[in-house]
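This part of the workshop introduces the protein records we will be handling. An example says more than a description, so a record of this kind follows.
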Amino acid sequence: MALSGCLGPAGAARVQSADASGDGTLKIGLILDNTGKQDFLNASQLAAAKLAVKEINAAGGHKGKPVELLPETISEDTAGQARELAAAKADAVIGPTDSSRAPGAIDVLANAKIALISPANSASGLSSYKSGGYYFRTSAADVAQASVLVKLARDGGAKTLAVVYEEGRYGKDLSTAVGAAAKQAGLGPVAVAAFKPGQAQQAAAAANAAAPDAVVLVARNGAQGAIAELNNAGVAGPKLILSDGAVSQYGSGLGSRALDGARGLLPGTFPSAHFQAELVSVDPALKDMTFAAETYDAVNLAAIAAAAAEDDAGTSIAARLISVSGGNPQTADGSQPSGGSTACTSYQKCVDVLRAGNRPDYDGESGPINFDANGDVTAANYTVFGYGADNKATMSGSETARSGGS
């Protein structure tokens, strides 16, 4: 992914408060960019956005007027979708899903002064992408899971660790973060070995030669082949910890009991029964709810930010998102604003907080958000999975990773 922006301020430069300039109607757009095998992801995000807008309007909308969800299209041309949404006078846009397509959307929407909140982008480099302060995401960066991967190793009794990673930005960044987290956690020397997809034999042998208590596999496309090679080298079952990109229902695709006792994680939390029922009421055909919570929260945050600013313009929304998410916004002189915040779990409750003269701290279906100065969440939730003898994963718990960001 090319991460060179063409805008002025860096990603960490948040938009300052501005005079009201909206047209009085809050318009929210969606960028749905999933095609082919991933097209099922569109339905969950669309249902979540519709649900959020429905609830917001039931609570009175924005300044007494209904919030509009602009008509959606599905295309991998995110820049084209962004231009269409800008032309439709969107004030905030939710999406895209694919991190590699985010720069095209950011460049268009930031130049148009429209807030962009992705429910799914996880590439670490996006934290410093030049958005002029208009880009946020309710999903965590890939590297946020590093501390959780290390915790899983320690919880299993490991005192030494090896990391086997697939070459590429995802593998390199996350393996470096795992090494740093392991050092901070007091684990012994960390052996690190890289591989290309389909060529993991040497890396697996190097990991086994280090005789670690646990091996963290950081991979995506090459994960299945790497697991097979690790098994061949003598590393299997309880010793293996899989990053989010490596977690899958492998079943008979691997040798018998290859993953028995292994653990892995996926970002996000399992939707509550109530939230699932509400989503199905919007789309009865909905089967998968991936990114639904993050999308729902993104829409609510945009509306709460508009309510806090008493303005629907994209600049006003972007300027208030850190504050209403529970983050620590800075004033123009770099100081922290006075006064505490009050936790709230819905648009209605957060508006009630505003009416009481307090600052809302929205904690949604995906958990606490607390945007930092880069527009990243500072509390990342993960679902932990354990593998059985059939090489299939089942949910076994949850973990939260917290950054030191403001």
